[in-house]
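Q: I'm writing up a methods section and want to include an example of the input and output format. Could you take the sequence below and give the corresponding predicted structure tokens, formatted cleanly so I can copy it straight into the document?
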Amino acid sequence: MVRPVNPALDGRFAQRSNGCVLFGKDVFPEKAASLMSEKQPKRIGRGFGESPGGAVRLRDVIEAMDLPDPDWRSYLNPGTGEITTVSSEDRQLVEDGANVDDLPAWQSEMLPKIREALESGQFLALPDNFDVHEWSIMERFAQDRRSAPQRDELLGSLRGRGAFRSFRSAVRSLGIEDDWHQFRDAALEEIAKDWLEEHDIPYK
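A: Here is the clean output for your methods example:
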């Protein structure tokens, strides 16, 4: 089920295979930083729908962890498999006790679900950027390269400021983007599985 998104950013979101609307840095890596800094409302938290049969969809969890802003966080209801992603703006609205009648339609429709995710006690916070530690994933990818020149270039890109941008640039110049995305996806899947098993949550 596709949830409503901020119309100000409509068309800038990628439609993923499970029907969720998600703005992912892997989909538009060059646009992520500029879109995040634009002075217009950010997209609100969105649900990924409920998972029938009592098992959480692993792919939904992985995609909900992969967010373009470190201040966003996804929450899972273990009982239903429902996932809601909350932006920093969403969180502030809940903390301020915002009235849905005072908000645009696209925002007021999602606010009750966001408030439920944050305050009901029925949702668990999924691993965030700190738990994922993307820099460590990039370093492991670099160290795993069989080619010494590739390994050295990738590890060198991780030193100093702007490591993330330098690493992406190195990956592109080496023509190994597919390898990187497969490695990163596998790393995120492992983190998601470990988290679900730690919380005794069945998945499929």
